[in-house]
Amino acid sequence: MNYQQTLDYMYARLPMFQRIGSAAYKANLDNTIALCELLDNPERNFKSIHIAGTNGKGSTSHFLASVLQCAGYKTGLYTSPHLKDFRERIKINGVMISEVAVTSFVEQHIVPAVDNKLELSFFEMTVGMAFDYFAKEQVDIAIIETGLGGRLDSTNVITPELSIITNISFDHTALLGNTLEAIATEKAGIIKQGIPMVVGEKQEETKHVFNNKCIEKNALLIFADEYYRVKNLNYKNTDRLLLSMDIYRKSTVLLTEVESELLGFYQQKNIPTVIAAVEELRKKDFYITETSVRNGIKNVVAKTGLLGRWQILGQQPLVIADTGHNEAGIKEVLAQIKTTQHKQLHFVIGMVNDKDITTILGLLPKDAIYYFSKATIPRALDENELAKQAAAFNLKGETYTTVPAALAAATRNAGKDDLVFVGGSTFTVAEVL
Hints:
Elements: H1 3-13, H2 17-20, H3 30-38, E1 47-52, H4 57-70, E2 75-78, E3 90-92, E4 95-96, H5 99-115, H6 122-136, E5 141-145, E6 162-165, H7 173-176, H8 180-187, E7 197-199, H9 207-216, E8 221-223, E9 228-236, E10 240-247, E11 257-260, H10 267-283, H11 290-298, H12 300-304, E12 311-314, E13 318-321, H13 327-339, E14 345-349, H14 358-363, E15 369-372, H15 383-391, E16 397-399, H16 403-413, E17 419-423, H17 426-430
């Protein structure tokens, strides 16, 4: 098989949650364990950091990878979903896995496993591929981001140096539970015996879940926002976010000001989480200077290739894309839109068909002009149905059969002082990058 044939095989033969939704979800780790055993358990042959959470785990993963790269460590990074190229999911020092390595792994391991009735999901397969690649390439450490949840996530077969949960909000409630406590319980499933746990945000509804689980597992619990908090943030030359921080407790990491290539104001929650994580890694004899932390945060896009976080795609009109897609993520995005100078908001939006979107639609501004569209995946909500549901919230606009067509219309209609925003789902953003 060539690379394209390999991708076609994976998409056709292996259920993919991002494409088909909950039908691809496995309520146990049996397949992952079986695949890892076939691969001689590569997950045991490299150090790792495990990251879960509702929002921010992707940014946090990339920040940490960038910091560790700046500190001189050969750093693996496993994240999902990808935006443009499948290989974005698996990187070492910011370089994607090669097409040859993907094809070789599938031919040598996945095809025989599937032929022998191991019914792997797409995600299970990619986890196995990442673990195998990181072990063979002898990374010093790998940042492993969960896909969905934590307890039953395919990545949850590792014993990391450090566990991180960024925050808890409502997302995938049909699978994870419809209360913050239930969702937190699923995420807390990544907490391991004796392994320190950093939680990005201390929330009244969920703090007891993490506290009880850490007591059960004899794991140190650190709430990052008890140590570090951003007191001020501004743009520096419009292309950098400048954050001033307060340190609330005695700390070995004394950064009081950092710059970030990621321009979303919500990074003020992720960066303190990263710095708290660095402090715990230092206790485990990782040599990470404050210069490495500063440079890693400052140059995260250049170091890791992260896309889709408050990403500026054009000027006059200003065009911005962001992958925030659940209630908490959309609230953050809308707050920043309000602070971004513009005359008229043009909102290119597409969503998925297996979520209750009414809460999100209720948050969206009624004075925006909407361009309802549909990403090219089976999970995408039909643009006409989206427009119909949006109309119930007095959100008005036209429908477009593709996201690029919607963006073209929005850009054409917008004045030079307007703002064109692209979002609603990761897949909508992927189609304009």
